[in-house]
Each structure stands twice: as C-alpha cells, then as structure tokens.
Amino acid sequence: MRPALAVMLAVLTAPAWAAPQEIKLWRHDTGDVEMAAGRAAVERFNRSQQRWKVVIEAIPQGSYTESITAASMVGQLPCIIAMDQPTVPNFAWAGHVQPLDTLLPTDAVKRLLEGGRGSYKGKLYSVGQFDVALALFSRRSQLEALGVRAATLEHPYTAAEFHTILLKAKQSGRYRFPLDLNGRFKGEWSSYAFSPWLQSAGTDLIDRTSYLRVDGMLNSDAAIRVGRYYGRLFKDKLAERNPADDRAFEQERTLFHYTGSWKAREYSERFGADLLVMPPPDFGDGPKIGAGTWQWGITRTCRQSDGAAAFLTHLISTPEIAEASRATGLVPVTVESAAMTEHYRPGGDWRLYFEFARRYAVTRPATPGYPAMSSAFEKAMADIRSGKDAADALDEAVEAIEHNISRNNGYGFDTGKPRSAP
Q1: Number of C-alpha atoms within 13 angstroms, CB side, residue 100?
Q2: CATH code at 42?
Q3: Are 222 and 233 in contact (CB under 8 A)?
Q4: Which long-range contacts (CB under 8 A, 24 or more apart) does 62-69 make?
Q5: Is the same domain home to 97 and 169?
Q6: What's the CA gap between 62 and 81, in Å, rounded?
Q7: Cβ-contact 118, 125 below 8 angstroms
Q8: How many folded domains does the chain comprise?
C-alpha cells in the first residue's frame, strides 16, 4: 500500500509543482510599438524558464496612478508595476514598492545610465530599459546661409552665443520666431526641458544634499538669470508664446527646435544629411538634459519577489535592452546594449542621442515632493513667459514648494523636528 500511495501522491502533486507561478505585471497603455515590445520581452522571459510566468495587465494611462493607489488600500497590488521615473520616490515613500538593491545583480545595475535607475533616499527602487534625450535641432544649410557655426559635443553654444544667433536669425527677416520651444506642451514639459537649464547654470530646483531647502536654489542669482533669459526669448519674439501648431520646424518657419529624440526618425527621414542634432546651450556648467522615463519596480506586497527580480534582471540584460531599443527606436541605457544596435552603436546615425544621455543627463530631484515641485515650476515658467519678472515668479515657486515639503513632514528626509504621527 505504501508504494502505491507514494506513486499516487506524486502523480497528484506533480502538476502543481511543475506549473509556473504567475507574476502579475501592471503597465499603463502606451503606443502600439511599445506595447508590442513589452509583450515580446515577457514572452521571451516566460519561454526562457519554467518556474515563473509573467502576466501583463494594461491599464488606461489616465487612471493608472489612481488604480495603484486604490489597489494598495485593499492589498491587491500586482507584483510588478510600471512607474514614470520622476514619480518613483513618491511610490517608495507611500510604501507601494520595495528596494531592489539586494534583489538585482549589482553589475547589471551599475551598467545602467542615469536614465535607467530610480531611487529614493539612496536606495534603488526601479530600473528601465530606455530613455529619450533632449537636443537642439537645426538645418546645416540654414546655419551656413546665416554664417553661423554648428554646435558640437566639444563646443556647444554658450547661452549668450545662442541668444546672439537667434537675434541674427530674427534680423535676417526669414524667421518670425527662430526658436521653437514646444510652447503647446503642458505639464511635465516645463520641468523636463528647462530645469536642466538651471542645472547647467550651477543651480537646481532644490538642494539635493537635504531635499528640504529650496530657498537659495530655485531663486538663486543663477536661477533668476536663467529665468530672465527664458523670458527674453518671448519678449524679443525669438520664441512664440502661444504657437498655433507644432510644425514650425518641419515647415521651415523656424531655425531651431528644442525637443526630444522622439523626433529623430521623423526629422532624419525629412531632412536627411541636412539635419543637425546639437547639444542644448551651455549656461556655464556644461549642457544638461533631463533623464528618466517609464521604469519597473516590485511592490512591497509581492509574494514572488525572487521571480519578479528574475524578470527585471532579464529586462536589464544587454540583449534585452538592445532589443527594446531596436523595437521602439528609444535610447538604450547601457554602453553594451547601444553597441548592439544599428542606430546607437559607435558611428550609428543616432549615436549623438546616446552620447547626450551618457554625458549630460540629470535625473529630476529624487523626492516624493517632485510632482508638487514640478507643478510650481511649471506655473513659474508660464508666468515668466507671460511677462512676469523671474525673481518674483521663482520666489512664489519657492514658497509653494517649501510649504508642500513642510506640510508633508519633509517627505521622509530629516527635518530635525519631531515627526507627527502618520
């Protein structure tokens, strides 16, 4: 009887042991290309081993954050969630995600560029496969017609030189507004595009040594100079306050377009060898660009953390990052993966975007207060664009941000004050 019972028990339990454990993954709905690339990466992981099976659930982007918050309140979060890199500290502070430092291979994480990691209080909470890069686009033939040099990695435009070039272009009579700053973009664009100008000038949105002090940073003399520079672009009619469309560069109504590498394919196909891709202007401390886009984290309630970590390790492997870049056209976030792609390898036609991401990228401040900070900065820049003096606009932003930090007890950073009960 005993051998027969043992065999029967083995037969009954074998399928349970053999079946891979499901790991739920939530992501927001994006474009068809990115969704297809994500599904392909999951399928490759599921085929590569028998222990885990990642299952994707796509949620509309407009309700994504609210869905995570609601699920966390009833203990229904999946194991893996997608997060926009600037919001990662907020997710960590809220207790939605767990640190990854002991879960992922150190060497794989170290290879990631700045735009491939999300952290809070010195701990890693997210990793990503790709990024985008800000750039200054122009046309070789148009600069030559004006007798203007092209900026390069070694010799970017200084801020003063760039302003002089814009004035010259304006005075030529060919361009009503020689610079397109994506004036129709709202929300995060202001912080993503223009806080790097602060960092290029040697200041910032907040003091990153404490993540508590904003006064003296966002309203410093350097920040005010950047703000007034930005305001002059509109006062001198070098950039349009409220553009009617976003096609000025492709229709040759403007000389420069300050935007992201998401325009690489379109502009390359349209202008060919005449297209120039240049660094943003240097305000004194070298050109800077924003870093970080959608990344992956593991929730605190995940019961299969080792499986979730195996999947994230798979995603940030060199072949997978290269494949994600090939499928989406986005900038890969390791040197090794870039070398495996046609566009971003050394000598590739889009290599400059990778170099910008490697040399110039600065992540947005790693604080849970960043969403409020970004909103305050956006308002300040809108006010400056409408004619308000930069000193006044930035002072108001400082007051709003510091009030938000105080109201939230420093967002987990040491304020030196007794903490109130949660």
Answers
A1: 34
A2: 3.40.190.10
A3: no
A4: 64/26, 64/28, 67/26, 68/26, 68/96, 69/94
A5: no
A6: 15
A7: yes
A8: 2
